[in-house]
């Protein structure tokens, strides 16, 4: 059940961290809150920025759901907000495409990548492995500020006269490669590319830091076999990002060449207004290969941190050891490896060789195996556990529910013959919003509710948390389950209006229902926002270890200072999931407790470890 027998650590603190034991000068406001090199403050910066971007992205989705739910309605009441993008009481069709593009970009990159991984990797890696800080505090600060600059550039593009990028969040050529194609292909697309370049630099700086910290700065006794599953997930996520984001950077760079310098990497035989353009020899399919080589690992860059968070929250609140610790690590490694060889299942309709399509179909179905291992292990952890239904635990269980619901439809879309029929329908939208979007958000919420006391020294209100959970999971299923139905019927995604198609008019009432549920989901998040902000200032004060957890972050002061531990860093003797161990005086034994202090609960091999 525990980790393999290893010799006990012989020292009580992290020697490499000794020089940090002295008092850290907090400095002035700028160095403490703005240009901080403290990993905990940088985590809060990522979190608050991510929350802000989440509400911006959700607002954009609400606007286009209004259009889809009531395509014939007069929207003059939106003119004070959208100005000239509402013409004659109707939403401008090109602006609709821009709304869809910016919503996808913001949610995938700025919220679920930077907001989730940036927050919890920064906050938990040093605290859970027993380090004073990240390997490089300065690089860590730069990673946030490159992200912040990327956000500023993306936000500015929303206010351009010609509108923001409108080629979809996947920015396929030729719309993204020809500045004259549509208004959104001009300055808005240029700013999109600049923003993404800055964003990728941010992710690479952060990823190098996370990997280096985990490898080099673990405290005495903290072997890789004793790392919490959170750290394993953040570590492997950083490796995924480090290997895949440069490919998107290269694709964006070549796209800039096509747009600005007359090259033809992604363009060939293009006509606009009957006039042939001077582009020959390029291939838009090449761009798809480059994009999805990042795009599919990106799915796991988003979901794996949430998996680690859920594993930690679930074990803590089930008061049981996580089931199959090594299998969980093996499944994370398996997901990481397989995620690099399945990208072309997004491209079954591009005319690829059917044999090649069958190879990618086989690999896609294989990747379901490690995901299923994790799911069964979570369910086994819950089985007969002494479950505490905290808000974090509810969101962790909700994550598993959404992950299973969305993952099952992934098996359908992984089949090339079925995917060709479902491609670019609402079935695909429903699938990835459940398995990646909603479930990742649930993992993020679980993490915020669970580690809020360590972040801010106060507790979030549990009753408001319950309201937030039930409203959100109800809304998620009410939005995305009906989308599967209309998707099977062939309802296409990214259509501005379906009223011209008699076939799709029969789904008008269902589309209205989906839009009402989406608006409901949006307003439900204000319960969380109020709880979050109010609790920072007025929440009940937290104790040092409010959840009776085993991991090292709960051995620090209630609100750790810069350097985390005021004295020596605790050494580690055991794995992080010694919950409800037979013979133990309490139902948890923290990692830093030596086996000599738990004689009554030691297993035979543990008696020989000291």
From TrEMBL:
Pfam family of the protein (one): COX1
Stretches assigned to the Cytochrome oxidase subunit I profile domain: 29-597
Biased composition annotated in UniProt, kind: Polar residues: 1-10
Protein name per its UniProtKB record: Cytochrome c oxidase subunit I
Location of the protein in the cell: Membrane
GO molecular function: cytochrome-c oxidase activity; heme binding
One cellular-component annotation, GO: membrane
Family: Belongs to the heme-copper respiratory oxidase family.
Organism this protein belongs to: Hymenobacter oligotrophus
Transmembrane segments annotated in the record for this chain: 46-68, 95-125, 137-160, 191-217, 229-257, 290-311, 323-343, 355-373, 394-418, 430-452, 464-485, 513-537
PANTHER family: CYTOCHROME C OXIDASE SUBUNIT 1
Its membrane topology: Multi-pass membrane protein
UniProt signal peptide: none
Annotated region (Disordered), positions in chain: 1-23
């Amino acid at each position: 059940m525990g980790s393999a027998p290893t010799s006990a650590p012989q020292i009580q603190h992290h020697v490499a961290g000794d020089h940090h034991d002295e008092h850290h000068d907090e400095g002035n406001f700028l160095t403490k809150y703005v240009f901080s090199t403290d990993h905990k403050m940088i985590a809060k910066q990522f979190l608050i920025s991510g929350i802000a971007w989440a509400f911006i992205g959700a607002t954009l989705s609400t606007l286009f759901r209004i259009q889809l739910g009531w395509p014939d309605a007069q929207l003059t009441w939106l003119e004070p907000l959208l100005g000239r993008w509402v013409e004659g009481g109707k939403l401008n069709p090109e602006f609709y495409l821009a709304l869809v593009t910016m919503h996808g970009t913001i949610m995938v990159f700025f919220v679920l990548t930077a907001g989730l991984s940036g927050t919890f990797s920064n906050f938990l890696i040093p605290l859970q492995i027993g380090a004073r800080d990240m390997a490089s505090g300065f690089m860590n600060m730069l990673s946030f500020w490159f992200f912040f600059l990327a956000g500023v550039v993306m936000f500015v593009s929303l206010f351009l006269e010609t509108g923001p990028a409108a080629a979809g969040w996947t920015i396929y050529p030729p719309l993204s490669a020809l500045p004259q194609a549509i208004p959104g292909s001009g300055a808005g697309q240029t700013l999109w590319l600049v923003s993404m370049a800055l964003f990728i630099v941010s992710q690479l700086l952060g990823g190098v830091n996370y990997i280096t910290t985990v490898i080099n700065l673990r405290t005495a006794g903290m072997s890789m076999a004793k790392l919490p599953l959170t750290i394993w997930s953040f570590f492997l996520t950083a490796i995924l990002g480090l290997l895949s984001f440069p490919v998107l950077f290269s694709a964006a760079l070549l796209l800039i060449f096509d747009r600005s310098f007359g090259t033809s990497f992604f363009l060939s035989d293009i006509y606009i207004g009957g006039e042939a353009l001077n582009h020959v020899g390029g291939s838009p399919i090449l761009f798809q290969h480059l994009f999805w080589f990042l795009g599919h690992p990106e799915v796991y860059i988003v979901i794996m941190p949430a998996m680690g968070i859920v594993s930690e929250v679930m074990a803590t609140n089930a008061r049981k050891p996580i089931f199959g610790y090594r299998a969980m690590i093996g499944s994370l490694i398996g997901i990481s490896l397989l995620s690099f060889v399945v990208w072309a299942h997004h491209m079954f309709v591009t005319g690829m060789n059917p044999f090649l399509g069958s190879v990618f179909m086989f690999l896609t179905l294989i990747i379901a195996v490690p995901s299923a291992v994790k799911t069964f292990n979570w369910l086994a952890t819950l089985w007969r556990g002494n479950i505490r239904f905290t808000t974090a635990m509810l969101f962790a269980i909700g994550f598993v529910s959404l992950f299973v619901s969305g993952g099952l439809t992934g098996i359908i879309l992984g089949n090339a013959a079925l995917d060709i029929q479902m491609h670019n329908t609402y079935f695909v939208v429903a699938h990835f919003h459940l398995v990646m979007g909603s479930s990742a958000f649930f993992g993020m919420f679980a993490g915020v509710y669970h580690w809020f006391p360590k972040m801010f020294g106060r507790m979030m209100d549990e009753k408001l948390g319950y309201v937030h959970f039930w409203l959100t999971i109800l809304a998620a299923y009410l939005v995305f389950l009906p989308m599967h139905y209309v998707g099977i019927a062939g309802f296409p995604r990214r259509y501005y209006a379906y009223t011209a198609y008699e076939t799709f008019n029969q789904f008008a009432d269902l589309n209205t229902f989906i839009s009402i549920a989406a608006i409901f989901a949006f307003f439900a998040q204000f319960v969380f926002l109020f709880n979050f902000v109010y609790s920072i200032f007025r929440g009940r004060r937290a104790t040092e270890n409010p959840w009776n957890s085993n991991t090292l972050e709960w051995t620090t002061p209630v609100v750790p200072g810069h350097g985390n531990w005021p004295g020596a860093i605790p050494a580690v003797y055991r794995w992080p999931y010694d919950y409800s161990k037979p013979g133990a005086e309490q139902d948890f034994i923290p990692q830093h407790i030596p086996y000599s202090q738990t004689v009554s609960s030691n297993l035979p091999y543990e008696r020989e470890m000291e």
